[in-house]
Design goal:
By secondary structure, this protein is α+β, with helices and mostly antiparallel strands. 30% of the residues lie in helices and 24% in strands. α4 crosses α5.
Length: 176
């Protein structure tokens, strides 16, 4: 039902290309994930190491809000729990809840702050791919490729760079 896939789960994207479901993956833009928590930081997670922070959340049996929506963000979160050697899906921390709000869109920040940011493992690359017409003949190849070409063009990259929420740039273009 789609001609183009524009997502942010590079591991899954590369698998789609390798399996022939998409023709080629183009990097488009990036942003970074962060770990947000209570101002008091009861699990003592503040720092620059997200894996260590997740281990502390699990060891403290602290409350944790998961993206929980099978998005690229959720896939990255699950990989980070795995790197922390925490079976997050099987042994969810106390009070584990799910929410699908990005920090820049989140309005109720009074009791929250950014606890972990800057870890290279929090890098979030977005890619775009044309669905393979050899497997899906209904794909509108010319229109799909036109959109991809625009996204990675200087004009498309400028639009991406100009997108802001509350005055903060959300995405950083990096098409090659």
């Amino acid at each position: 039902d789609a001609d183009v896939l524009f997502v942010h789960d590079q591991e899954a994207e590369e698998k789609l290309v390798a399996e022939g479901f998409a023709v080629r993956r183009y990097p488009v833009m990036y942003n970074d994930f962060i770990l947000v928590g209570a101002v008091a930081d009861p699990a003592k997670t503040h720092g620059a190491d997200v894996v260590q922070a997740l281990r502390k959340v699990a060891a403290a049996n602290a409350e944790f809000i998961s993206r929980g929506d099978k998005s690229g963000t959720h896939a990255a979160e699950l990989r980070l729990w795995k790197r922390a050697n925490v079976a997050q899906a099987a042994a969810k921390p106390k009070g584990d809840k799910e929410a699908a709000a990005a920090w820049l869109n989140f309005k109720n920040r009074a009791e929250l702050r950014v606890l972990v940011e800057g870890d290279k493992r929090l890098f979030n690359q977005y890619g775009v791919m044309l669905v393979n017409p050899a497997k899906h003949p209904q794909v509108k190849v010319a229109d799909g490729q036109k959109f991809i070409d625009w996204l990675v063009s200087p004009a498309g990259q400028a639009v991406i760079a100009a997108y802001k929420i509350g005055g903060e740039q959300l995405f950083f273009p990096n098409a090659r």
